Amino acid sequence: MKTILDFYQMKQNREKAVMITAYDYPSAKMVEQSGADLILVGDSLGMVMLGYDSTTDVTLSDMVHHAKAVRRGAKETFIVVDMPFMSYHISVEDGLMNAKKLFQASQAQALKLEGASEMVLTLTKRLTEAGIPVVSHLGLTPQSVHVMGGFKVQGKDKQSAEKLIEDAKKVEQHGAVMCVLEGIPAPLADKITSALTIPTIGIGASLSCDGQVLVYHDLLQYGTSRLARFVKPYADLNLTINQALSTFVREVKQTQFPEEKHTYQLNEGVSLEEE
Ligand code: KIV
Ligand code: NA
């Protein structure tokens, strides 16, 4: 399994890190087999797997449940797990307790926290001191969707761009080992990536980020309806699954399935006919 030191080295060597989300046992197995460097058990599982409207409905037990399944499917991969909405905002003590639960239950390598508020910075430092590596998530932070007034690109004007650069430096200073940059202008992502020693992982950010992350279901078009601009679909599982399921339905209705090769026979010489 790669360690955080490998990711620092990769940044220095300009070798890209690949992160893909996984939410359950089969997706974790597939991602591990793909050669991706990291798995993210994102709180996007709320929308993708559970049909919630936003990540603000995701609970700590949702995260534990899914992260444990992912660990079982990917024993050799560096796993980052999202701290869900409001599990690290009530107090530093509450955040530490929740982080302990999630980190231990999931056997993850790091936890991810959105934003750079005073509380998050303090928690980043305290968790790092306690031995829990923190991945930061800046820019478009979905847990703050209601404060941002929608899923909007962040840091487009000079003032908010400069604030994001400061935030990125702060999370690094407080011990973050990596920083996800979501939904920010490419030149800003370039600037942050060169300003930081820790690797940046982009999503809707830029090519110069030290790595890229996409949501499993987005890149496979699996259960998704509309894709954001920053997603490139690499397959169309919706189509594949639709075709397979409707063919199965039709074949059963038309008594074309099961065929003889899908059925079992009695032992040699046994007959169920009345004598
Ligand atoms: O929850 C998630 O999938 C994420 C990524 C989009 C970075 O946080
Ligand atoms: Na997330």
TrEMBL record:
Lineage, top-rank taxon, reads: Bacteria
Explain how, and how many, cofactor molecules are bound.
Answer: Binds 1 Mg(2+) ion per subunit.
Q: In which pathway does it act?
A: Cofactor biosynthesis; (R)-pantothenate biosynthesis; (R)-pantoate from 3-methyl-2-oxobutanoate: step 1/2
Keyword Nucleus annotated: no
| Localization (cell) | Cytoplasm
Answer yes or no on keyword Cytoplasm. Answer: yes
Q: Name one GO cellular component term.
A: cytoplasm
A GO BP term here is: methylation
Q: Which residues bind 3-methyl-2-oxobutanoate?
A: 43-44, 82, 112
Q: What is its EC number?
A: 2.1.2.11
Residues annotated to bind Mg(2+): 43, 82, 114
Enzymatic reactions: (6R)-5,10-methylene-5,6,7,8-tetrahydrofolate + 3-methyl-2-oxobutanoate + H2O = 2-dehydropantoate + (6S)-5,6,7,8-tetrahydrofolate
According to the UniProt entry, its GO molecular function terms are: 3-methyl-2-oxobutanoate hydroxymethyltransferase activity; magnesium ion binding; methyltransferase activity
The protein's required cofactor(s) are namely: Mg(2+)
Q: Per the UniProt record, which residue ranges are transmembrane?
A: none
Protein family (similarity comment):
Belongs to the PanB family.
Q: State whether it acts alone or in a complex, and with which partners, per the record.
A: Homodecamer; pentamer of dimers.
Q: What does this protein do?
A: Catalyzes the reversible reaction in which hydroxymethyl group from 5,10-methylenetetrahydrofolate is transferred onto alpha-ketoisovalerate to form ketopantoate.
| Name of protein | 3-methyl-2-oxobutanoate hydroxymethyltransferase
Organism, by scientific name, is: Halolactibacillus miurensis
